[in-house]
Amino acid sequence: MSSKYQVVIGLEVHVQLLTDTKIFCGCSTKFGAVPNSQSCPVCLGLPGALPVLNRKVVEFAIRAGLATNCQIAQRSVFARKNYFYPDLPKGYQISQFELPICLGGHLDIEAEGGTKRIGITRIHMEEDAGKLVHVDIPGVGDDSCVDLNRACTPLLEIVSEPDMRSPDEAIAYLKKLHQIVVYLGICDGNLEEGSFRCDANVSLMPKGSAKLGTRAELKNINSFRFIKQAIEYEMERQAEILDEGGKVIQETRLFDPNAGTTRSMRGKEEAHDYRYFPDPDLVPLVVSDDWVEDVRLSLPELPEMKRQRFAKELGLSDYDTEVLTASRELADYFEASLALYPQAKIVANWVMGEVTRALNEENRAISDCPVTPKLLAALLQLIEQGTISGKIAKTVFDEMYKTGHEPARIVEEKGLLQVSDSGAIEQIIDQVLAAEAGQVAAYRSGKDKLFGFFVGQVMKASKGKANPALVNEILLKKLNG
Questions:
Q1: Using one digit for the tens of pLDDT, what is the confidence trace for 253-273?
Q2: Fewest CB atoms less than 10 Å from the CB: which of 90, 258, 366, 395?
């Protein structure tokens, strides 16, 4: 993009809530059910069916608002947003407009040059629409079917201020928001299933100008990588139009991940196009101060607070705290292990190293890890006691991961006990030094760096079982003697 333009980005994030039932009826929200098997007169919009607000949805909205520094409105109102689409059975969506439940929050992100504050305009509750499924029907050809299982599923829409000035800032904001809603337990954060998806409003303005350009809305993107690609493409597209003297049209565009391009979907509606008015079937929602305080007291420790505590109380580095708090489950696993083996740096290294490596190789969640915190702590105890070496411990860990067996059992069954008999170790060292007479002469002539070579040879000869501390001690005496 030409350096004479500045991109302006605002994001509207849809967060699907982890409630068992929908926002206005008792239908299940379970993903992947048989199409149209989770619907009723309320979510189908049948005449005479009346919505009843799910209290858990309100609680989750308050949690999100408090975690993003919003003001919680004592009085908020549901409105009807009128538009027509095949997957919208009522012909309108129940949402919030003029009086949403949360207002005026912010998130701080790490941006180029330091910390940057991104404003949050509002958070409001709404119902989701259904889903169009495009299929090839034998004898008929391509057709579109509607699955209304998703209709009336509870959503939070989190609307940012247009404060982001690069695709990287947009992704940093999205990742932080994603982490928070998952930590709060209000969303599973599954982007592939559409539980966390984003509309990006992108515009360009001349550098140094205070007047915002005409924006295009990039609709329903559910991948951090695709969101960044879509914004980057849209910046180039708009810059090319402006360079040629044209005008950017305010419209809604779709991103094609295969082509890496956006294409026009429809003209962008303004608020008056939706003909908002208060829903006559739902009374205004009143949230008491006591309710807000109860929710505040139930909030979990959020990632930023957890990172600060890990650094201050445990002495861990910024890198360590960032990795260990990447997910709530990983942080919980680390803390559970630390409670059983209270040496923070050692536990952190094993969780970030062997545990994470094994899980990544199988694309497995930490909640499904066969090596429990209890097993990991028992393994670290064996290292501390000198029962096994750190190198052998990695072999034992792999076997624990495969079988779920206790480390002591694996060590015994496989004969992996560490050799701490100084006489046995001395015998191995003598054999190595006799076989490497030339290297011994080189070491004694001043090539001290060969010491590591000798240690390696002794450990290899002992099949990793020799006590490393004893090896170093005896080897040093032999070489310097």
A1: 999 998 999 998 877 667 678
A2: 258
